[in-house]
Every structure is written in structure tokens, then in C-alpha cells.
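Before the break, one more example. Copy the sequence into your notebook; we will annotate it together after we see the structure.
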Amino acid sequence: MANHSLLFSLALVIFFLCATLHAESSTTGFEMKNDLPEEYADVPLDILVKSNKLIDHQVLKVGETLKVGVTQNAIYYVRAILGNEFASVHGFDPSRDAGHETVFWLVKEDGFYFSYDNASWKKDSPWDTE
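Here is what the structure looks like once it is written out:
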């Protein structure tokens, strides 16, 4: 009987370890699309993504999308520069985005919009200037 209890306990420990690893490696992420009009084709949209370290740094052309996978318990900071304008948003924030598989972002002339369904948008942050 002691062997059965030991095996059962070991099975529970393995189950919870696997469940924790699965939760941490989920496919949660965010997508940021350069949705500026074509007149911005020659203006670089410089995007920097950081969490505990530099995650990505790209220049997005009009129509391009940056996709970032995230760890669900970390905040992902996005800094953007467009000509003489700049903005900073939380690309992913667990306190806001928990339970959503993907956070969608649009970069527009008047600022940054986010959505959980890629259809209904909420303005998060305007562009700032010096």
C-alpha cells in the first residue's frame, strides 16, 4: 500500500510540474501593426520591445506587423518613434491582458489602439512630441 501512495504522490507532482510548464509556455502574445497611411511610407516606424531584457527591435514599414510571444507573468514595454513623435505602451500587461490569447495593436496617425478580437479597438496612447 505504501508503494501505491508513493506512486500516486509522484504522479501528482509530475502532473503539477507539467501543468505549470504548459501555462508558462503558452502561445500568448501581442501583434503590433503599422496601420499608418501610405503617405508615411518613407517615415521609419522604429519599434523597441523590452521586458526584463531587449526582446526585439525593428523598423516596421506601412502594413507590416510585429509578432511577439510573451511570458504571461511579465510586462512587455513597447517604445515607438515616428519622425519627431514618440510613444510608449505596454504591449502586454498581465493585469490587463490575462485570459486573452493575443493582444492586437494598431499604430495610427493619432496614436496606439488595442483590441482582443482584432475588430473593436480602444485608443490607449496618443503620440507625444518633444
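The chain is about 20% helix and 45% strand. The mean pLDDT is 86. Try to locate both features in your own notes.
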